[in-house]
Structures
1.
Amino acid sequence: MPLLEVKNLHAEINGKKILNGLTLSVEPGRVHAIMGPNGSGKSTLSYILAGKKDYEVTSGSVSFLDRDLLALSPDERATLGLFLAFQYPLEIPGVTTMTFLRTAVNSVRKRRGESEFLTPDFLRLVREKAASLNIDPEMLKRAVNVGFSGGEKKRNEILQMALLEPKLCVLDETDSGLDIDALKIVAEGVNRLRSPNRSFIVITHYQRLLNHIVPDIVHVMAKGRIVKSGGVELAHELEAKGYAAFEQAA
Amino acid sequence: MPAVQETVERVRSIDVDQYKYGFVTDVESDKAPKGLDEDTVRFISSKKNEPEWMLEWRLGAFRRWKTMQEPSWARVKYSPIPYQELYYYSAPKKKVGPKSLDEIDPEILKTYEKLGIPLREQEMLAGVQRSNVAVDAVFDSVSVVTTFKEELKKAGVLFGSISDAIREHPELVRKYLGSVVPVSDNFFATLNSAVFSDGSFVYIPKGVRCPMELSTYFRINEQNTGQFERTLIIADEGSYVSYLEGCTAPMRDENQLHAAVVELIALDNAEIKYSTIQNWYPGDSTGKGGIYNFVTKRGDCRGHNSKISWTQVETGSAITWKYPSCILRGDNTRGEFYSIAISNGHQQVDSGTKMIHLGKNSTSRIISKGIAAGVSNNTYRGLVSAHRKATGARNFTNCDSLLIGDKCGAHTVPYIEAKNSSALFEHEATTSKISEETLFYCMQRGLSQEEAIALVVNGFVREVLQHLPMEFAVEAQKLIAISLEGSVG
């Protein structure tokens, strides 16, 4: 049974059609890459999966762990195990990163029926995971994403991902704004989280990221739906030919 | 939560004192007739066995009050207060409370539950009349209070009710009462001067650092002096005191009108830190029945190098009209005002401060965080002024407002007056809304909408929370979350 099943999804924002019959099936343990030009609806897909308000689904369905995902609130989806790494992570002034992490993790654990972490155990866990992402412990004392560099914000996203132990991770243009060193650290962080029980949807413009996070399946998205799917070689083909050919096909 | 537990212990001690001083006095003779005239004032004064000078002081205030007009400049709306329909004195133990928790607004009970207050203590906080008090509780709290009082006595600190102080320390009371907030100061302060029921009196002798934080909860009958409370705190030369007022549990009260006066006096090199958590009943979901809170709080940095710091967390009351202020009279004095004012539902808050710079090189700092939700209105009103002689005066003001939803209002009304060219005043103000994007980000990480709002708001007010004593800060943080529940539809 697929972990995520998107069927013929149509969606719009302010009356403007963005998704146009998107169908996608993600099995447990698989890494899917979705590539496509600007405006093809990649980010919209990630927001709709995570439950952002502004979008209206006009037809189609999404099931996640055999539940009707679209009927759930964003926090219920997170509790079930859906994680979105934001393209532009938000700043929360006055709330330290550590407090934010502890609040999120304990809130999710409580709702999953798991015990909350004791503070010392949690601190140890966070420091350990942070170190593997080359995150300076000082960063954990700073307010969430406030004054963070692009690389720090993205690493912070991966840190949250590691702590929340999701079943499906959606990475929305995680490579944007990263230099090659930062990209490698982030990709290694993601690779460490790969497991037979965890799936990924990696959304990106560029093949570059896929050299570091090697996908099982590559999809090309254009004009609000998936127009072609294939193996890693599809990414290489895209890099060589560009999106134009696929856009015409859509 | 140990801090909550401690609050409960303190509340318990109140009940004990009521018990100790008896339930047996005759009802009729303990209540002044409805309305306010000179006889009412005489009645109150005689009930309290006050000396002649105190009665004259009250009568002077009353005569003055009759000539005054209720102020109307604040951004609050309420129907006229029927002053002649109110009771101005009823003996503390005789108030008729509800017979059981069934008569209490269920919303309040829910909040007690969330704060983790046990059922029996809930009854006490809600003012439910009980015919007996558990014996173990009596013994426990009596010993706590006794230990506490002995330690203060050793340090030479005077801490008790103002009624007692009027009889036992008339020289101090006569010297300082009304010296910061004059009898004629404003309509509500003048009313208070005429009819004040009770309140706290604190005197810290020269050079003494008060060995513990003083809390109203250790004082007798606290629960029943709320209506026209009068507090006087004097820090003699080189002394220090931290005073806590209030409680996170919402307090129910029969009296809708509250007009307290607090006066602080800091002599040379003395420091007073005054922290408040105010959580009076804000009214039901339609705004009915909430407390009107018209408070005059003022500190006088009378001596050189003295310091007064106000920290307040205002979450309750239907109407809050409150401007804890500092008169920076001495040279090199410092005034501080840290405030969190939250309004939800139909609440109206008009609060702020005044920093009056009279002494040379006096400095002040104002950090105000207003949060408006529901259909509430939240106004910051502040004055910073420098006298001609206050050379080198400095002020920094930061007023931030946060809006939740689109039916509430936040307003900032700062007044700045500098009468000498060397004064340096800075003012910063921002107004923002909690963005949908931020809430979505938090919710994507598994926080419910209410948890997300509480987190963002606690971040917003962090700078002020840091100035509260530790245990108060922890409770305040919880209280903020509770106050904002239901703020987003």
2.
Amino acid sequence: MAKIKLKRAQPHVDMTPMVDLFSLLLTFFMLTASFRPQEAKVIDSPSSVSEKATPDKDVISVLVSNDDKVFFSMDNGKDTSAHFRNQLITKINDIYKLSLNEKDIKTFGQGSSFGMPMNKLKDFLREEDAGRKEAMQTGIPMDTVGTQYPELAIWVAYARELNPLAEVAINGDAEANYKTVKKVMDVMQNAGVNRFNLVTNLQKEEAKLEDIK
Amino acid sequence: MAEIIENTGSGKKEGGRRVPKKMGAHIDMTPMVDLMCLLITFFMLTTAFSKPKVMEITMPEKDNTEDPKDAPKVDAQRTYSILLTADDRVFWYHHGEVPEGQTFPTTINKTDFSKDGLRKILLKKNEKVFTEIFELKEKVKKGELVLEEDSLNSQIKRIKKSDKKAPIILIKADEKTKYKSIVNVVDEMAICNIANYAIVDIAPEEVALIEKAPK
């Protein structure tokens, strides 16, 4: 009996549509991705019903982490050529004699939030190791020791002087103590800020008429 | 795999002329697909879809005058205090029920952050304004009333201002309060359409009241 030899077909999958789809998705994600600078600490924001979007530019933001450390950040403004961050650090450097060089100022200008006493800022900016850098973020001192104002007040005051349009955003962790947030608000109020933007996550919730009964 | 199909000439002699055998151009796309998968995964994971939102609050201006006569006078009948402390515990009292001649009540009421807790209390106090705004919003939703977003907001603002009996809420938090609780309470104000509220400092007498209150 003759054996029927089945011709083994080479499985040949046409990948063209897949590749097409992939290109499309890739393009989409690349275009929509908005990179946020690495913040000093991961903040788990509380949720609220507010639908107002966070302002992108002209913001002075203060981070309060769950271990009650305070970090400060400022953006370069709508017109990025203004380089508010560079101006800010140059000013602070001149007044408080931090002995930073050009390179340090540039590093600061490109950074995001930071939190350490002013005298540690130089070491922080020159540190290359990411792990040690993180360990140096001990929070901005909030107490009035030695100097007349707490350091946060100094940063806020100069930041507001440079960019009077800047709004203040407080990005507090849900588990942070209100005491610390209150201290931050007090410092801000002394600097003449009475309106705050509290950063929250959107969580829709609505009360109905029946809820009254 | 994507490939470009071409006439693979057999290479036989045509009229004595030798046609060179055309090779099927076959590009191996596997590395490209691999890379694309990787990039897509990366972008998908790093893209932040939900942009964080902000909640606006305006704090009462700090007055450095210690003179109690300068303190703004508010109608006690309209005023309620919400006291916050650790572990999401919430208390409240009505200033109108404070005995004559005293600033603080003897007991405070306990409530919680649930729908039937604080929300219900606030809605009851603010019933008139809430009902009006709710009905207005319903009308807009159903299309009975066509309003621009801006004019809707200004109407809501007007309703909020119109009620001269609407509650005034004072939010007071002690030292042990978590930030979350404050945000929760301010959020309730937004949900219940309460126009007048402020975060103010807690008095030592009120801290004592919280401590006395049942756990």
